[in-house]
């Protein structure tokens, strides 16, 4: 019984470490995503500024306000990138995801249900058998 107790503790600690590691990896991926948004914003912001300046000069010189039309969709992209890089986009997405998990959990079901050891082994054996047939 002492062995079983120590083994259970070992399994528990191993699972806890695995969960902590997965959470750290998730946090790092989210940080990379925010960093990417901020880096992209630098380049897109510069492009947007130069494009707006050039289009404005062209519109004034040719007296055609229609030349400013591309600024409208570009401003939406710029606003989205600012929100992703420095705003509350991530928080709103997290809240929406939590709401979906609570009220629309049926949308999250995997096709053919949760993978089991048996289903994984069956798939692995089928692939191994197929590989051996192809090698002949």
TrEMBL record:
Recorded GO CC terms: plasma membrane
Which InterPro entries does this one have? Plg-R(KT) (IPR019319)
Q: Which biological process, per GO, is one annotated for this protein?
A: positive regulation of plasminogen activation
PANTHER family of this UniProt entry?
A: PLASMINOGEN RECEPTOR (KT)
Query: Any idea what this protein is called?
Result: Plasminogen receptor, C-terminal lysine transmembrane protein
Species for this entry: Sinocyclocheilus grahami (Dianchi golden-line fish)
Which lineage ranks, top first, belong to the organism behind this chain? Eukaryota, Metazoa, Chordata, Craniata, Vertebrata
